[in-house]
Every structure is written in C-alpha cells, then in structure tokens.
Design brief:
single chain, alpha+beta, 17 strands, eight-stranded mixed sheet
Length: 429
C-alpha cells in the first residue's frame, strides 16, 4: 500500500509513478485522496476544538451546579456540541474508509531503473547456457508425457475440468523429486528456513499481499467459511509476521515452502491451453525474504541468483528479463522473470518471478521493525520469488533432454533421487 504522507508531500511524484504504471485514472485518484485528507484533517481539528470546549464548559457546569445556579443553557449547548462531535467522528471514519479503499486499489511505485512501457519494453538482462538444438523434430511435452506414461490430461479434465492435469507414475515421482531437491538446495545452500504453510487463508491475508481486492476474480474461494485457496505460498509466508514489531536483529528472515497454487487465470481462455503451459492448479517452491530497507535492492539480486541456481544445476538454458512498468505485478516495485527455453513448443517459458515490494506489502500487513531501542519503528521490506515453479520447469526438462527414440535423459543432479538416469516410453521393456 502506498504511503499517504508520501503522496501528500510529493503528489506530482505519485501521479508520475501511477502514470508509468499505465493507470489512466491516477490523476483523479490522487486528487480525491488529497481532498479526502484535507477534509479529514479539518474534521479532526474541528472535533478537537469542540472537545476542548466541551471539557471547559463541563467544568463550568459543575461549578454552577455546586453553587446552586442554573446551568440549563450550557447543558443544552453541550448537547448540540456532542451531536456535532458525533457527526464529525462519522465524517472522519467515512474518510478513513474511502481513503483505505482507494489506497488498496493503487499499485506499487516502480523503482526508477524499471523501464516505462508495456511488455514490448521488457529488457533481457542476461542469458545463461546454450539453447539445445535437436537433430530431429523436437516433440512437445504433451506428446512426450503420454508416450512416457507421465501425464494423463483427459482424466484430469474428467475429474476437475480443463486445466487440472494428472501426473502419474514416473511423472508424479519426477515432480516430487524436483520439489524435494529444490527445497533442500535452498535450505542447505542458501540459508532459508523451510516452512509448511496452510493452503487456505483468510481474506485479510490475501489483502495483505495485494491479491485482494484487485484480483478476486482470479482466485478461488470456499463456500460457508470464506477461506481462499492460495495462488502462491507467498501469501501465507508473508503473513507469518503480520501485525508484528520485529527487532532489528531478527532481520533478515528467509523462508521457503512448497505448496500447490490455485489460479483461475481469468481472461486467459484459449491461450496456451495445451499440455501444462497454463493450468489452474500447479506446484511451486516459493522464496520469501524480510529485509532491512537499505538491503532490499541488493537482496533482489541475491534472490534472483538463488532461483537461477536451480536452472544452472539442471543445465537448462534460460534468460533473465527485467519487466517494464506495464508488465509489473500489482505489488511489485521491480521484477526479474526467469524464462527457460522449451524446444518442443519453441518458446521461452516463465518459471520464476523475483520481485522486491519495498514497504508496499509491509504497510498492508503492518509489519515493522525497530532500528534501535530508542528509535521510531519503520516498515520492513519484503521480497519473493519462485524457486522454482512447476510444471513449466518439467516441460522444459522433458523437451530439452528428449532423444530421438522418445526417451528422456535426466539431469545428473536428480538421477540418484529418481533412481534412474532416463525415462523410457511405456511400450519399451
């Protein structure tokens, strides 16, 4: 959530930031926020004046009564004053409600180094590895998955509808092995603490990370109790410290967790619907950091590098893309996407988004730290990234390491965990 004080002190900067995000109504929203703030301040001042007046007159009324004199006129006046105070309190409460509603719907400010524009302005920062070329026509993963006995799309659709695949046999094992291996790597090499988190969260938790109210239509909600299925483990991990005041020595905090993720992908009907490219339930290993403000930008580079390690260990060619303002997530101030090459579909596939949010999420969840015993609390900076997301990682792995005979070689780093060095078509002995 944006800081109202910062908006008031630099409204032009706020307007420019929202314009960079492509928010056409940003000018009107800023104007409304400032008007609401002015009206609220005036109501608070008037209320304070009336309360001071009421306190003084109440003292006088007490003295008159003690002396046996008539205080009726002053009592009636104070009754009117009380009604006006109540009306002013209601005006302040309404201004607070409307202000919060507006702020909750405003996206984060992009960092200055983020390029302005839409997806066409996304910038490739670096590339790693060689794109593998095959001396034969590379097959897409849905063909490989069926031939290898890894994937059952028709039965998944029968159970839950389109976008809910079934992984079976060695496919289910391969995905589990990748998840366990990634978690172990982030814990043992990168110093994260592994967490097991709920997959259902409250509305407050989704609002805290920025999914609500903006993306309600893309989320799944249960009937009766109003709990929401998580779109990513970022939500429960970030809310772990909601409404807490941390000691400076508690920072940084680094958490990793596996979870299934549930997303409606609203507006994406008909796009990338074949195989595993765009589905409503998928698995992901998440990385979340809580950092001191002065370290958050550096921490983004570290976080991105940690996610890259997975692709490097698997030997998959990838590129790092810095997103332009028009392609940033709602809560992000800056994002790097990791895109891996999938030769079967001949596309770069996003397998991770690594973002710094500044204090945007911390303001929504009221997460602060005290820099020193006598100093005023400040908001923590939050970051998160996929480390990594499945099943597009599975797609790239199958399509990259496929052989002409239909078998798939497995990267050396997971062969021991899988217990085999390759996957063979199910009709082979």
């Amino acid at each position: 959530m944006l800081d109202l004080k910062a908006i008031r002190s630099d409204p032009d900067g706020a307007r420019e930031a929202l314009a960079r995000r492509g928010l056409a109504e940003g000018e009107d929203v800023i104007r409304t926020l400032l008007t609401l703030d002015d009206d609220r301040r005036a109501a608070v001042r008037r209320g304070d004046e009336l309360r001071a007046r009421r306190n003084e007159v109440s003292r006088v009324i007490g003295e008159l009564k003690r002396d046996g004199e008539d205080a009726t006129k002053l009592i009636e006046e104070m009754r009117d004053v009380g009604q006006e105070i109540s009306a002013l309190e209601a005006e302040v409460a309404d201004a607070d409600r409307r202000t919060l509603e507006l702020l909750l719907n405003l996206p984060n400010r992009p960092l200055p180094e983020v390029d302005s524009g839409g997806v066409e302005e996304n910038r490739v920062i670096r590339e790693w590895g060689e794109v593998r070329t095959h001396p034969f026509q590379a097959r897409p993963h849905w063909e490989l998955g069926e031939a290898l006995g890894l994937l059952d799309l028709p039965r998944g659709a029968k159970i839950s509808g389109s976008g809910f695949p079934v992984l079976k046999g060695p496919g289910a094992r391969l995905q589990r092995v990748l998840i366990d291996w990634m978690l172990d790597l982030h814990v043992e090499r990168h110093g994260y603490e592994e967490m097991r988190v709920p997959y259902l969260v409250t509305e407050e938790s989704l609002r805290g990370t920025g999914q609500l109210p903006k993306f309600a239509e893309e989320s799944y909600v249960t009937r009766g109790d109003g709990l929401w299925l998580i779109p990513t483990a970022e939500v429960p991990l970030t809310n772990l410290h909601r409404d807490e005041l941390l000691d400076v020595n508690q920072l940084p905090q680094r958490y990793t967790a596996y979870s299934p993720c549930f997303r409606r992908e609203a507006g994406a009907a008909g796009a990338d619907t074949r195989g595993l490219l765009r589905i409503h339930q998928f698995d992901k290993v998440e990385l979340v950091r809580f950092e001191l403000p002065e370290r958050s930008r550096e921490a983004l580079e570290e976080l991105t590098g940690e996610a890259e390690t997975i692709l490097q260990e698997l030997g998959l060619a990838y590129r790092v893309v810095r997103l332009a303002t028009g392609d940033l997530g709602f809560s992000s101030a800056m994002t790097y996407d990791l895109e891996v090459w999938a030769p079967g579909v001949e596309r770069w596939l996003e397998v991770s988004s690594c973002s710094t949010f500044g204090d945007f999420q911390a303001r929504r969840i009221n997460l602060r730290y005290r820099p020193a015993p006598a100093e005023k609390p400040e908001f923590v900076h939050t970051l998160n990234g996929s480390g990594l997301a499945l099943p597009r990682l599975l797609v790239a792995l199958l399509e990259t390491y496929q052989r002409e005979d239909g078998s798939v070689e497995l990267p050396e780093v997971i062969q021991d965990r899988m217990g085999v060095g390759e996957l063979k078509p199910v009709n082979e002995s």
